[in-house]
Amino acid sequence: MAESDLSNVEEENITTLEITPLVAIALVLVIIFMVTAPLFLQPAMKIILPKAITGEAEERENVT
Predict the structure, then answer these.
(1) pLDDT for the residue numbered 8
(2) For the chain, which residues make up each domain, given as ranges?
(3) H helix runs in 1-64, sequence order
(4) Where are the transmembrane segments (predicted)?
């Protein structure tokens, strides 16, 4: 009779779903998204590239 009582308790523990860890993970994800979202809204760094003297492409000698 003691074995049947233990099996009922073990089955009950397996079927329960703990919400606290799920809520904790969800809140951590929300915080991570809130911190990283402004990084995507900022414009990228502007780089001023030098202009070419001529618009023609120079021919390069193929190395064999």
Answers:
(1) 57
(2) 2-41
(3) 2-15, 20-41
(4) 20-41
